[in-house]
Amino acid sequence: MSKRIDELDDAVDPMLDVESAFESEEFRFGDYAIEDYFTLVIFWALIFVVSLQFFTRYVLGDSTTWTEEIARYLLIVVGFAGSALAVRKGTHIMVEFFYRYMPGWLGRIVAGVAEGVSVGFYIAMAWVTYKLADRTGSMMISVDLPKNIIYFTVFAAFVVMAFRGIQRIVLRLRATRQ
Fold first, then answer.
1. What is the dihedral of CA 107, 109, 110, 113, to 10 degrees?
2. Which of 9, 106, 117, 129 has its CA 20 to 30 A from that of 83?
């Protein structure tokens, strides 16, 4: 027989996890990796550039020419650096629906194969972006910087993703042996 919602105990309270998300924990630098701090710095630079663009366009009435292009490139860097962060934490988008209906051993195998395929993809994309960056010689339009800076940054993000993916596979293999 099912219980009424007001009869449920705290162990199955659906709001328990939501409430715990708002509890503040002590900040520890060791909980974060170098890519987290890099992403944070680039994100704040993006906020500064977009705020400067807003201020010059709507307050001063004359927008600076370089802010839109730099904001676009910073957003690209934040996206790829954030992807490296997601690989480290294992929070990339995936379909968890099928894992519920698989036996535990099969779900672990499928998850391991998926992580292996992901690492292969990261390595392939790192190679492609390196070749693209190496062949790109054009300059940015509004700033006198080479465009390949962005491509090399994306290359570095894919390398970090591959490294973090390999770390996750190694940790998964160690956990299954114990």
1. 160
2. 106
Q: What's 147's DSSP letter?
A: T
Specify the 3-state DSSP secondary structure of 75.
helix
Handedness of CA 122, 124, 46, 54 (dihedral sign): negative
* pTM of the predicted structure, to 2 decimals: 0.80
What is the C-alpha separation between 150 and 34, in angstroms, rounded? Answer: 19
Q: How many angstroms separate the CA atoms of 170 and 151, rounded?
A: 29
Distant-in-sequence, close-in-space partners of 107: CB < 8 Å, separation ≥ 6? 99
Whole-angstrom distance, CA of residue 103 vs CA of residue 35: 35
